Amino acid sequence: MEKIKAILKSFGLPRLIIAGFLLLLFIIAPFVGIGVGNSITDTLARFGMNSIMVLAMVPMIHSGCGLNFGLPLGIISGLLGATLSIQTGVTGPLSFFLAILYSTPFAIVFGWGYGKLLNRVKGSEMMIATYVGFSSVAFMSIMWLILPYTSPTMVWGYSGSGLRTTISTDGFYSHVLKDFLQLNIGSLSISFGEILFFAIFAFIIWAFLHTKTGTAMTAVGSNPVFARASGINIDKQRTLSVIMSTWLGALGILCYQQGYGFIQLYQGPMYMAMPAVSAILIGGASVNKASIVNVIIGTILYQGIVTMTPSVMNNLIHTDMSEVLRIIVSNGMILYALTRKSGASR
Amino acid sequence: MSEMTKPLLEMKNVSKEYNGNPVLKDVSFTLKEGEVLGLVGENGAGKSTLMNILFGMDVIQQTGGYGGKVLIDGNEVKFASPLDALKTGIGMVHQEFSLLPGFTAAENILLNREPENKNVLSLVFGKRANTIDRKTLQKKAIDAITKLGVSLDPDMLVSEMPVGHKQFTEISREISKSSIRLLVLDEPTAVLSEKEAEMLLRAIKNLSAQGIAVIFITHRLQEILDVCNKVVVMRDGRIISELDAAKTSIDEMARLMVGREVGKGSTRSSEARPLSDKIVLSVRNLWVDMPGEVVKNVNLDVHQGEILGIGGLAGQGKIGIPNGIMGLYPAGGDVKLNGKPIQINNPRECLDASLAFVSEDRRGVGLLLDESLEWNISFPAMQIQNKFLKPYLGGLIKWRDQEAIKAVTEKYIKQLQIKCTSSKQKAKELSGGNQQKICLAKSFALEPKLLFVSEPTRGIDIGAKALVLQALKEYNKKNGVTIVMISSELEELRQCCDRIAIVTDGAVSGILPATAPSEEFGILMVGKTGKEAK
What we know:
By secondary structure, chain A is mostly helical. Chain A is 68% helix and 4% strand. Chain A has helices at residues 2-11, 13-28, 36-55, 58-62, 71-88, 93-120, 125-146, 192-208, 212-222, 224-229, 234-260, 273-282, 292-317, 322-339, and strands at residues 166-168, 182-185, 188-191, 262-264. Chain B has 19 helices and 24 strands. In chain B, strand 13 (279-288) and strand 14 (295-303) form a beta hairpin.
């Protein structure tokens, strides 16, 4: 009994409630005409699309830079990579790798500058990060119009210049990971490609946090003065973590696009940070402690709720209010997650 | 103290456990009106827990209440919150101040109990629109201060006060409450200078003469002898002994507290050791800009294998010296280790040069409070010297070597007798003395050539003190490591060091062998010109 109590305590009551609620939704679903197979398929598909963006929170949390509300900056690096890759005209899976390749230098440069900025505002990183995200989205909204892209799949048809708000990845890298190693049983379909892709990067981050540099990064987040007295260059560690987070953000959006099938420009990245932030918080992370387990549990719970609540509710009350519900659920969860006290333990 | 018929406070068989760990066992004592009770015990002996029970602190309820009875005037009480305790007439002054810095002493003393004046608005809007009666406020505050018997300007802003006056403001606030009958003082003299402490002790006597009972917690045993009527000695959650303060001695209390003999007052056992000719560290024209501990111009030579003590009054700059050399505060000057110049203002350079530093700010600088002991001990050595790393994939990546880390942590836990549940326990869960030992272990793991130790015994109890000092001495003897030890307690320096440098006004005013009589140190401390001497 004591043991069970300890396990429950370590899992955390809030997560237990959310998990219970999710389970309840899965139980109700068949009675209102939603197949369990579909439900699970949807949840897993969303997990595959979003998990790397949630993972992008981890390095910055570890170095004490707080939650990466500046995720849009990483997403913009990813968008630049994606559009450049399509511009080259390469099709198929290769275009996905090209997109990753092209977005990397942008992520490094943007992340470096973002990191330098955050080093000047120690103590209020999260607020500054939010505005870094917002203003970079605004700036890029202008750039998407001006940059000399010419690929007919991307530019406005009537003027021949300026990128469209939504660009299809069909023929390029749509579903490259999703259709890779897909398992179909009736209505249930699991894409092991996406999960494998996430697993690789989750492993890399996990392994990194076990190295000397990773240990130093965690110490910087835990007590910066201690780290400095131990000869660690705090600013360097923080910048490195921000670069890593930004790059993972770029990777995350590419992964999202291949599952979703479209590239969303202009205001698209504006609020992308919020779901990722609330997912990792629900997963049990706190502002300065996070683990890979937090990422996995959080993404499943968050995406599960966001997928299931609207469809179950819609079928229960027979009106389409999925968008309203989605907003209430996701923002409510951020609010809830940010107010809860207990953090993760390693 | 004529009416000693029924006890004001009686504790009967009080016990308490935290998560199955008993921290108080069968504690019983009584306290009469106007009596001063000294409560002594090592850190973690259960003093604070006992006072938390008496004061009805939330933490007690949250962790499952307590066993036994607390009686006031012979009636059993169970306080649900500190507010109830206040109503009954129990006041408590905690170690940390809770004062509003921007308010004057008088305003702080009567905060939320201000005398009020009615006016037109308050007739309409009720009590909330009353104005404060400043005259009565002033008078009441002065009354409280006079009752305490100290000199304190009621119009002084708390933010501008020296630490001692803040303490007096806190106590005045408690005794300004008309119902006050029992006052608990938790280590009130720890932050005070000797003179302020004396004033406070006199104030305690004043209070007791007025019939207010005082429970006085302190590590300074002399103070117990000075003011208390009786002494309760606690160890491991039990009351070991109740003594009559008039008939006991510091030695007896210390022995009871730690349960073993504590060497007291003796200088080094090995007497004067020959001083090596080789100079390890030479410091020339060092200045350090450390707030409150400014170093102006320090010249110092440290010889191979010695323990050099640096003493002096607080605020004269002794603490600034290691902090400046190790690069934690802006500094300048020439520092040479074995003849090679060291770049100061750069912690990494100093650590690479095999210097190590145990900071006086344990919780702020010395520890990763949220991490395990393993991390705390192994971290600097891992980062600076690439120890405790295990190569994988042919040396392509190096991971933390958990086994080596665990082994070294357990080695030091054993060697320094660190009390903990396991090497994975978090540093913040340890008591002060054990945290200090972790800080030592951390620097021992670096295997330094020269070790700076700043205030190694600050805020830790007498038993842990002896162990920490012993560990330092042994480390110096066995490994031949030169140690520079900074401490405010001269007696402690004289026990450990070969030579002692006294820092006054940001410069070294003199270096004496530890065997020199204490008057000579005293003269150096007040400055060569004697301008500080009163």
